[in-house]
Amino acid sequence: MGKTTPAYPLDISGKDAVREILRGVPALIKLIWRIITDKNTALPVKIWLGGAALYLISPFNFKPAKGLPLPFRFLNRADDLILILFAVLKMFEKTPFELLEKHWSHSMPLSMWRDLVFKIYTDMKQFR
Fold this sequence. Notes:
Layout: H1 14-23, H2 25-37, H3 43-57, H4 70-94, H5 97-103, H6 110-125
């Protein structure tokens, strides 16, 4: 997708990278909508993104019983986040980069924004 080598290590702090990533979230939401509605998008990508959106707005949710340990209570929120991340990952893997760039509406280029996400991901892996 796009560049073959990420710009990592980027000359930016983790805090600044997170701030820039969060500024790009509205553009990511617009990108997802535009990719779903674009006739050039592959059907499996549309199904993943649309299914994730339907799951998020559905009234059903995993509700663990009270008194369960923290990891189980965390699943109530984590399942939504995991599904979103997986659907977005599928979108980036299966959609041509040119189509993604065409619909990207943030001031920072998509390849740079993606590299910031990669930076945070790699920084977080070091703490495992």
